[in-house]
Amino acid sequence: MRVKTIMTKDPVVIELPATRSYALELFKKHKVRAFPVVNKKTGQLAGIISIKRVLLHPDEDQLAMLIRREVPVVKPDDDLKKAVRKMLDMDYRRVVVVDDDGKVVGILTVGDIVRRYLAKNEKLKDVTIERYYQKNVGVVWRGTPLKAALKALLLCNAMAIPVIDDDGNLVGMVDETDILKDSEVVRVMKQTSLAALSEEEWMLESNPTLLFEKAELQLPMKPVEDIMNRELIVATPHMSVYDVAQKMVQYHIEQLPVIRGEGELVGIVRDMDIIKVILNK
């Protein structure tokens, strides 16, 4: 199968130069997680900007400083396997599709592959997720503050993380968007110590400090259980790739906790995990 068969054609792009506030407006308008970014003069790809990078760096207004420049790129006639291999090699959820002149003509995401290929390929009913799901995953306790939960997500390089109760039982899932939508950018005063050169020491008071204003992402002081999703959609180790893909499409989710027996949490299966089946065909 060719990339052009399932890619999203003519995606919205952001032209440089641009500001953080302009990008935020586009994210709100189009409800996507990332945009290709192009050079306004040449039209060629400059990189990708994600909503996560914009929200986590509130003090940087110039979009050029926030974009990811090392991004996977493919051509429309490339095989789907090539696109999947690039996604996995670079641990990135999307590839930008460009023509021979380097102009953006499409974008292919993990979600596109799940919706338009895996969830429609009934041959995958015979392939279980057992060899693909993540067996070592991070979790957070239900009383974990949102700021700590976000840190856990970033350290795990995950989009969502299971929530457990005092007994270690799975009670919910929390997504990065659940946390970030409760955030706000505030301006705070910071201070730093000044280091004087030896010949200037007589001019400065002891422990001189410099005050400056900085924008920071602030999260409310409440536990993760206040915002977690309690209506769990789960998988089991012997569930097929086809059925998992169907659930992801039906419930608009990118990952499912994997349980065994009486609800014992044994891992998590992500959309990035199940696209590996394409390379094994």
Automatic annotation (TrEMBL):
<feature type="domain" description="CBS">
    <location>
        <begin position="228"/>
        <end position="281"/>
    </location>
</feature>
<dbReference type="Pfam" id="PF00571">
    <property type="entry name" value="CBS"/>
</dbReference>
<feature type="domain" description="CBS">
    <location>
        <begin position="67"/>
        <end position="124"/>
    </location>
</feature>
<feature type="domain" description="CBS">
    <location>
        <begin position="133"/>
        <end position="194"/>
    </location>
</feature>
<protein>
    <submittedName>
        <fullName>CBS domain-containing protein</fullName>
    </submittedName>
</protein>
<dbReference type="InterPro" id="IPR046342">
    <property type="entry name" value="CBS_dom_sf"/>
</dbReference>
<dbReference type="InterPro" id="IPR051257">
    <property type="entry name" value="Diverse_CBS-Domain"/>
</dbReference>
<feature type="domain" description="CBS">
    <location>
        <begin position="7"/>
        <end position="65"/>
    </location>
</feature>
<keyword id="KW-0129">CBS domain</keyword>
<dbReference type="InterPro" id="IPR000644">
    <property type="entry name" value="CBS_dom"/>
</dbReference>
